[in-house]
Amino acid sequence: MGCAASVQIINKTEQSKQDTMSQSQSSDKNSEMDENLYSRQMYVLGVDAMKRMQQSNVLIVGLGGLGVEIAKNVILTGVKSVTIHDDKQVSFADLSSQFYLSEKDVGKNRAEVSVTQLKELNSYVPVKTLSGELTDDILTSHNVVVFTDHHIASLAEKNEVCRRNGVKFIAAESRGVFGSLFCDFGVGFEVYDADGETPIQNIVTNITNDNPAVVSVHDEKAIHGYYDGDYVTFDSIEGMTEINQAGPLKVKSTGKHTFTVDIDATKFGTYHGSGYVKQSKQVQKIDYLPLSESIKNPTIIDTDFAKFGRPQLLHAAFQALNDFQKSNNNQLPASYDRKDADRLVELTKSYAEEVDERVVRYLSYTARGNLSPMAAFVGGVAAQEVQKATSGKFTPLNQWMHFDSLESLPSDESQLPSPQDAQPQGTRYDGQIAVFGSAYQQLLMNQKVFIVGAGALGCEYIKSFAMMGIGCGPQGKVFITDMDNIEISNLNRQFLFRKKHVGKLKSTVAAEVAKEMNHSLNVIALQDKVAPQTEDVFDDDFWENLNLITNALDNVQARLYVDQRCVYYRKPLLEAGTLGTKGNTQVVIPFLTESYGSTRDPPEKEIPICTLKNFPNAIEHTIQWSRDLFEGMFNKAPSDVNTYLTKADFVQEMDQQKRTILEGIYENLVSSKPVNFEECVVWARLKFEQLYNNQILQLLYNFPLDMTTSSGTKFWGGPKRAPTALTFDGNDQAHLDFVISAAHLRANLYNIQAPTADYDYKKVLNNITVPEFTPKSGVKIETEEKKKEGDSAPADNDDDDQVVNELLASIPKPSELSNWRLNVIEFEKDDDTNHHIDFVTAASNMRARNYKIPEANKHTTKGIAGKIIPAMVTTTALVTGLASFEIYKLLYKFDNVELYKNAFVNIALPFVTFGEPGVPAKSKYLDKEWSLWDRFEINKGKDITLKELKESFEKEHNLEISMMSAGTAVIYSFFGNKKKIAERMAMPVSEAVKDVTKTEYLPKQKYISFEICCNDQEGEDADVPYLRYQFKNF
């Protein structure tokens, strides 16, 4: 409804290229930015957006739970400065969400109490506090102003002051299970990259000399991916070279792999081949309405399509709430006071024609509430809007968001807390008691929860649990486990950690810091991986005593294992994940929903080996090739040498790669074994020649440029880009970078001291004699076409045997080098001094130069080679906030799946949507339905015989067992050896299983799971769940 902020696209070629990492040509050595600290965020925002953020001063007004969430996130993202203005004193109601306050601070100024800990979040961001009158001068001395603890409807005058002076304005509210957000970035706000997605690139196969020119791209993708109105640029086009300089050109799609560009190409050269076309992000200018206008005619983001019309209703209700407080001695409606609720309903009717009175009453009932999950969600979104306002990266909110988690409370008003139960108790949970009541608070406090992972998600979860009081009662506990130590790169988003914690265990520090936030938190830090190998640690009793598990992992396999444990022990699971600005949550509830593992993402597409080895066409290919090169030369090769020297039968155990392995050992022990750094430089120079000249010449010898395939088409074309051999140039810094980094890594292998910074590499290089290379016939190079035609020839084994024997005769015997070993280098992406990323970048760019592929800077290469997962603290905060709302519902034991919410967010757009969890798939035997949550249970109070188990089961379930297996071992089958089966049937079940599997039980194990095959009374196969048998600890 209403008028959206107007948007126009402007063609600013330079600005349109700024924020996409793959286009960014920013210097890798940025003296103003700590790339180790900000690395994961930089892969979301890009260097230029980060630089713009670092020029922005941010004012946050109000430091309650919502304000401190916003402040925490904004400080961690790295703006120029943050100022906190707050005149309020700490109250008990603040403590349920403001994590830098405690009971001892009640009565003190909130900002003054919190500022020390806020400063510790990021040493690069100065933080100061203000109190007293909030003057226009204070507002206009900042680039962005964020209001919290105020009714948005009351801020029109402050908005006007900011708007007149070019100050970006954001206002947010948190009221119980309701939240609201408004943004006004003024007139002509520039967005440099609307979505943050990597620009779409295609391989060009043809461009016509028409007006407009028609472009055809290779069909390796289903569609080219461009929409009408998109802009593109061209690179490395041969023949029609003029189009490479044409700048962004507007697209009109004409087919799945064709489109026109708005340029007259009739006088251009003729397209000869090669080249890329790439999407070019254009700057958008957006005009925002002032609050005074927008509040009357709002544009509101829809988040939950199951709540049609809800945002518009809440827009009216929030204005009515402002009116209520102004006319009620500045007091919000009392918790669960029906008279106050009726009055708010009437006030709301003056702003909306149709009013769902139940929704408005719930706003009235909970308006005094102060919930940590709401602060986390709204605070995460608001902080992301600050990032957009300061950087121009991503599309800002247009202009309102109203959110509720009404389903966290019973829909039957008779089941809600009484006004007395929701009264303040003088405890740190008063803000939550105002919503859920004191009796419910006791339930929360006595929960036993397991947080798997203490990274970014884990830190946010344990903070939220400390604020909510989970695990803080006499029977409550929070377990948190993580094997990892804290690194510098963690500090930008794992907000519990500081520089002084680097090197310490994540789980231990997270537990200690969370306990400082709430001294009643009963937290136990563990350092064990949750995996099959640790089932003696996380045993049956451990899992059975839990009430809830939260996954805070970045590993799919680990998530799947935890999910399987939750299904087995029938425990609810909160699952969440983030990727840059994207996030999702999933709630898994026994018998009510499907599990995390019920649906799988498709596997990542792998790069074909022949593409990597011989036919790259994208920078990702050359980076992966160089990463493999690093692993082969500096990890596998020295490992092979050390194994040869230490393992007597190593040579005999070699597989078909014996020749290749021995050639590597020969190179490292004989032909190229260096004794000083100069010889490492020589090796690096010769390696350059081998990789970027000789191998390319051999490839072109095998497949000449004019070669055609059996079908008559050109061999070189489309994704097969014809390479060019490189001639080494000591004056080319990229060539030198390869030699320098490779020489240092080579020296590291042999413990050779690296030289000082003034070492004269060029002098050494000028004296190196490089042998001439002549391509050889008979060299086999694999191609996709040859695979299809089946004409790849087998290796000449006789020649191989001869070469192997010669190599073995030339390599020193292990006894001759008994105390000598090579260093094995493990790839480490986050150490800028170790030459690892330097080498991979240089090696990749040289390969890219061979194939005329646009090169990548060190930052981009590090992200791809290191498989760095982009991360933002804002996404993490809001995702854990959304997941934490599900805990309230779980404690109420709601059995209607529609009340639970899975969330999907992309705050770059911004996009937030909710859906109900999927229900579990059903199977059936006889007349009984079952799902993954069901099983047969047998517990006879003792370890019965296998015969007794079978007979008992068959009698109870009217089924006949035809086969039983434990893991991969068959314990019983109707077709098995009769004598052995008879012997086994007389044994106790646990002994029979141990006899077959030849394994011992874990010390605390009390269950055995059997997969069973059954027949019904008609002899038909019955599809049945598994059987769980208890054999001890009855």
UniProtKB/TrEMBL annotation:
Pfam families cross-referenced by the UniProt entry: E1_UFD, ThiF, UBA_E1_SCCH
Pathway, per record: Protein modification; protein ubiquitination
InterPro entries with a match to the protein in the record: E1_FCCH_sf (IPR042302), ThiF/MoeB/HesA (IPR045886), ThiF_NAD_FAD-bd (IPR000594), Ub-activating_enz_E1_C (IPR018965), Ub-E1_IAD_1 (IPR042449), UBA_E1_C_sf (IPR038252), UBA_E1_SCCH (IPR019572), Ubi_acti_E1_SCCH (IPR042063)
Catalytic activity reported: ATP + ubiquitin + [E1 ubiquitin-activating enzyme]-L-cysteine = AMP + diphosphate + S-ubiquitinyl-[E1 ubiquitin-activating enzyme]-L-cysteine
Enzyme Commission identifier(s): 6.2.1.45
GO molecular function, one term: ATP binding
Catalytic site positions: C610 (glycyl thioester intermediate)
UniProt enzyme class: ligase
Record field: compositional bias (Polar residues): 14-28
Example GO biological process: ubiquitin-dependent protein catabolic process
Similarity comment text for this entry: Belongs to the ubiquitin-activating E1 family.
Protein name: E1 ubiquitin-activating enzyme
Top-level taxonomy: Eukaryota, Discoba, Heterolobosea, Tetramitia, Eutetramitia
The entry's keywords: ATP-binding, Ligase, Nucleotide-binding, Ubl conjugation pathway
Domain of life: Eukaryota
Natural source organism: Acrasis kona
Signal peptide: none
